[in-house]
UniProtKB/TrEMBL annotation:
Superkingdom of the source species: Eukaryota
Stated name of the protein: Alpha-1,3-mannosyl-glycoprotein 4-beta-N-acetylglucosaminyltransferase-like protein MGAT4D isoform X2
Domain MGAT4 conserved region as annotated: residue spans: 98-370
PANTHER family linked to this entry: ALPHA-1,3-MANNOSYL-GLYCOPROTEIN 4-BETA-N-ACETYLGLUCOSAMINYLTRANSFERASE-LIKE PROTEIN MGAT4D, N-ACETYLGLUCOSAMINYLTRANSFERASE VI
GO CC terms: endoplasmic reticulum; endoplasmic reticulum-Golgi intermediate compartment; Golgi stack
This protein's encoding gene: Mgat4d
Cited Pfam families: MGAT4_cons
PROSITE patterns given in the database record: PROKAR_LIPOPROTEIN
GO MF annotation: an example: acetylglucosaminyltransferase activity
Native species: Mus caroli
InterPro entries tied to this protein: Glyco_transf_54 (IPR006759), MGAT4 (IPR057279)
Phylogenetic placement of the source organism: Eukaryota, Metazoa, Chordata, Craniata, Vertebrata
GO BP annotations listed: protein N-linked glycosylation
Amino acid sequence: MKAKNVNLLFAFVAVLLFGFSCFCISRMNQTNNQLINCRNHVLEFKEIMLRLKNKSENHHQDLMQVLYQMKRKAAHTTRSSGNFLEKKGSILSQHETLPNQFEVLKYFLPHLRTAGKLYPDIATSKGRAGVSFALGISTINRGNHTYLKQTLTSVLSRMTPEEEEDSVVIVSVADTDESYLKSVVRMVKTKFRKQVQSGVLEVISIPTLFYPQTLLDKKMKTDSESWQIKQVLDFCILMLYAQPKATYYLQLEDDIVAKKMYFTKMKDFVNSLTSKNWFFIEFSVLGFIGKLFRSKDLTDFVHFFLMFYETKPIDILLDDIFLIRVCTSGEPVRRCLQRKKGFRIQYRPSLFQHVGTQSSFPGREQHLKEY
C-alpha cells in the first residue's frame, strides 16, 4: 500500500514538474518573441532616425545653397545699385532708438513736420563717442577743384596717437550729387583706411529730405542767396550730429590746412583757461573756420541759426548771437565789444590756413589768407 502511495506521489510530482517546465518554456518563448519584437522596433527606430538624419542633412545643404544664392544676389544688387551706405536714416526701423536732437528741425522747417525719424545717412562710422573733441568738416562738390584730401591729411597726420583716440573727425557730405558722395567715401576708405577702421574718421551724408524743396531746384543752386541758406542748414545738421559725441566741437571747412601741432596747442589752450564764461574760441578769424564751442551749448547756437537761417550767412549770425547773449539791454555796442575778449576768445597765431581758391559757390573764386 505504501509503495502504491509513493508511486502516486512520484507521478503527481512528475506531472507538476512537466507542467511547470511547459509553462516556463512557454513564458521563455513569449519573452524571446518580445525581445525579438523589441529588437525589431529598435532597428526600425534606428532606420527611421537614419532617414531623418539624411533628410535633415539634405535640407541643411538645400538651405545653405539658398542662403548662398541670397548672399550672391544681395551682393550683386549692392554692386549694381551702388548702395555704399552703412545705414540710411530714411529707412530706420520703428524700434531703432536714436538721439532725438534732430527733432528740433521740425520746429523751424515746416516741410519736416510730417516726416518720421530724422537722422543723416551714415557712409562709414564706428559710432565713436565720449571723446574730448569732435571736428566737423562740411564738404560739397567744387567741380574740378577738390581740397578735401589735403585738408584731412593735415588734420589727421598732425595728431598724436593719443589725440586720435580722444577725438573724432566727421566729414559731412552736403551735396545732392550721389556721385560726389561715392567719390568721397572711396577716397576716405582708400587713403585713410587706418583712421576709418579705428573710428577716428567718419563720413555722413545729408539726405535731400532735410532741405526745403526750393533749395533743390536747379535754378536755386546757382543763386548765391540759396547757397548761403543751404550752407547754414548744412552746418546746423553737422553740429547736431556731433553734439553727443564730444565735450567740445570744432568747426572746420574742406579747404583748409591745419598747422603743425595744432591739436596739441588747441587742447593746451582750452585747458589753460581759468575763466569758464567764454562763449566760443576762435582759432582762426576767417569766416566760420576754427570756431570751438562747448558741445552742450550747440543746441542754443543751432536754435538761433535756424531762426534766422534765411537772412544772413552763418558767420554773421555768430556775431549777432554774441551781441544778444553778451550785451546788456541799452548798452552801447562799442562798450560791449570792449568786453568781448572775455567771452569771444581769440587765439593767436591762427592754427588753420585757408587754401581753397575755388569757392563752394559755383563760379566764384576767393583768395582769403590768414597772416
